[in-house]
Amino acid sequence: MGYARITAVGLVGVTGHLVTVEAHVDRGQARVVLSGLPDAVLGQARDRVRSALVNSGFHWPDQRIAINLLPASLPKHGSSFDLAIALVLLVASGQLPPPLIDGIVPIGELGLDGRLRPVPGVLPALMAARESRLRAAVVAPGNLREAALVSGLTVHGSPDLRRLTAGLAGQGEMLPVPELDAESEDHSPDLADVVGQDAAKRALEISAAGGHNLMLLGPPGVGKTMLAERLPPLLPRLDDASAMEVTAIHSIAGQFEKRAALLRRAPFQAPHHSASMPALVGGGSGVPRPGALSLAHCGVLFLDELPEFRRDVIDALRQPLESGIINIHRSAAVVRFPARVLLMLAANPCPCAAPKPADCECSAMARGRYRAKLKGPLMDRVDLHVRLQPVGRSALLGDEPAPEDSRAVAERVSRAREAAAARWESAGCGRIPNSQVAGARLRARPWRLPSTVLGVADWMLDSGRLSARGYDRVQRLAWSIADLAGRDRPDENDLGEAVELRLGHKV
Ligand SMILES: Nc1ncnc2c1ncn2[C@@H]1O[C@H](COP(=O)(O)OP(=O)(O)OP(=O)(O)O)[C@@H](O)[C@H]1O
Ligand SMILES: [Mg+2]
Ligand SMILES: [Zn+2]
Question: Atom 12 in ligand 1: which residue has the minimum CA distance?
């Protein structure tokens, strides 16, 4: 007869929540009752833990066992509670003394042989433990690198349950967290590799400076994909809070192993158009996982060959593009993942993708259907539209001056971002980029631009060629153009360029 409890961590979205795991072993008919809103995986924990205990040389109490996870209202899923359940059972059944597990947060899945297996989401779980002033945790060896990112918490690893309990009792070695490697060298592609395409490069720079969504339209082989891959390195490096958040998202998606360090560079996600809805926006059966949309948080989501994407996928992007958050609805709860991305789109001008418009073989109907996919509510959220032309031979053969490299452009972007952040902070909006400033703020004093500057935009709004959303978005763009030029306010030329970029042609 006995009772024990231990603190574990459950994840909801990217946030860790403390969960108390308690066990009561009592005389009576041998059976196990697991309560506290467990999902199917958690139900299987019972069978895994039973085998793990027996195969580690412990015995399974043939008594009445009650295991409860608190708070009941918190949805719990996944196999990361295995270790907590095993330890709490060992104490409740008198096989381990209670002080051994005192103040320890166990995170890990158990194999049937008692081996400790890594689980996704260890970083946000440990962050939650640290915030609650818990001092020590144990994880699987495969999670130690990730655990090393959280300071202020003692973390140990152990390969299996037997050695873990020996280690806790001071009768064996535990594995320490490894030293963090220095950040790997930057091998991101450089803008200097792209010949010509000055208009597109200019748009890339403005996009990076203000966080404006961008669309490249052009025939095959002119450098659209090349340019897209060169956008993230123009964005500022992630600050501590963003780096933790972005890394936590990748951790929950089970993509930490590949990186094994805190992500400091703006992420880049280029999902294929055939990718499933959960792979793109998040969700899936079982534990909800972040999709490409959230993996690109604080970075770039690139949809190459946009018209090939399914309509429902495109529609699902609309709301998160405005709010920066994706809500995934589940029967038990709504799971939220951060999704503040810079959207970059690319497409050919028509389905046959002829190099020159004159060579196009598409029927008028096919062209019309294709064009229709390039319109609509998603496109209204794209501020920069660029049409690319094939690069001339003399440019490709290097007869023109060498293009600027990414470092030079990134420096201008960084100065522009700093100017914008300082301005909007002084206005009480926080350190946001221009793309995130509320329309009402732009239209009110002291930020409202005079009609001498707004002229073209006013005329286009009146004549219906700009939507109300477009009108605000053009102004945000003009602020970014002014920030890049080091002007403290946009002038009429900045606004003119903004309108041209918004409409994708000269006005
Ligand atoms: N402007 C350019 N400067 C240098 N190389 C280029 C340029 N445009 C294309 N290339 C070369 O052509 C290849 C294809 O370019 P990229 O994949 O970016 O074209 P794309 O516009 O995305 O074409 P598609 O519509 O077929 O996807 C590049 O890998 C590069 O070698
Ligand atoms: Mg391409
Ligand atoms: Zn065509």
Answer: 221
Using the 3D structure, point to which of 127, 157, 176 is the last residue of a domain. 176
Among 161, 176, 191, give the residue marking a domain's end.
176
Q: For residue 304, which atom of ligand 1 is closest to its CA?
A: 27
* 195-200 average pLDDT score: 90
By the 8 A CB rule, do 326 and 293 touch?
A: yes
Residue 201 CB less than 6 A away from ligand 1: no
Non-local CB neighbours of 483 within 8 Å, separated by 6+ positions:
209, 210, 415, 416, 417, 419, 420, 434
Residue 448 sits in which domain range? 407-507
pLDDT at 37 over 70: no
Average pLDDT over residues 166-189: 84
Cis peptide before 71 (omega within 30 of 0): yes
Look at residues 122, 57, 127, 123 and name the one whose alpha carbon lies nearest to residue 95.
57
Residues recorded for the chain: 507
Q: What is the pLDDT of residues 126-164, one digit of tens each?
A: 999 999 988 899 999 999 999 998 888 999 999 999 999
